[in-house]
Amino acid sequence: MSQSHSIQASPSSPLCKNCHTAPVHVEASGRVHDFCGRRCAAAFGPSAPAAHGPSYYSPGGEMCLLCGDDPKHEINGRMTDFCSVSCRDDVYESAPALLEIPDSYEEFEEIAQLFRDKWLHEVTPEKPRPRQVLKIYKVYSKRSHMKKFLAYKKAKGNARRRWHGTTRKCVLGDESSMTGFCGQSDCAVCGILQNSFRVSKAKPTRALVANGSFQRFGVGIYTSATSSKSYDYIKELGGSPYMAMILSEVVMGKACKVKYEDHNLTSAPSGYDSVVGEPKLTVNYDEAVVYTDEAIRPEYLVIFEPGT
């Protein structure tokens, strides 16, 4: 721990829970830790009965997304969403699951800002700018899918965040208490958050869909870096006054950049892993297409209030 972020411990400071010799670390803000340093914290962690042995607390004081009782901490040198291994495991063992990110957290503002910054369409009466981001939930996918996704990501690389708009037939996420999946087979939002994206769910047709768009690059999973483009594909059929959009992590690998449509594609061209439609003629805003389930996972659910 950096000396510039600590203050001199007084003789009355409690002793480290691990070595029982040195006084605990005290931050300049007055926050008192359980250990004298990272080494003792890491050594103590594995032996803790409930695995509550953080090696380093979240500097912003952000609390565990699951229990909300203790600050987030590092596991294996990486800041996590949880205060402990036990909270982390509880979430992944019950996945798929959604956990709300409080609007005071940096992660909330990061995602909300990305949503706002990538609203690139001209504001019109038919397409007003959203009023505000109301809720953001982090998505924890099934272990079975995450294992395949991470293996694909390691092999191909070039992961990007991309937006996806689709049909919601419920009010999932409208309120903090509404995080249970509705179970309706035609609620695409719940289906994606529960089982991730599936190429088999893509409609193998060139026919226009209700919003006037169609699969310009064949049968695949479509996303966009432009939130206002993904907005065009949202259908709210569950009576909600709000709208939902999914932010996904997409493994692009070696992307083939194209400017013209090719409706016959069922995979990326030979030597490529994905297709990126760049703005040109009929492609007004960017589109990213992957053709395998392992190339994408839902990462966040964003609930926003539409403009009027």
From TrEMBL:
Positions in coiled-coil regions: none
Organism: Phanerochaete sordida
Domain PARP catalytic: residue ranges: 106-280
Domain of life according to the entry: Eukaryota
Endpoints of the signal sequence: none
Gene Ontology MF term list: NAD+ poly-ADP-ribosyltransferase activity
Designated name of the protein: PARP catalytic domain-containing protein
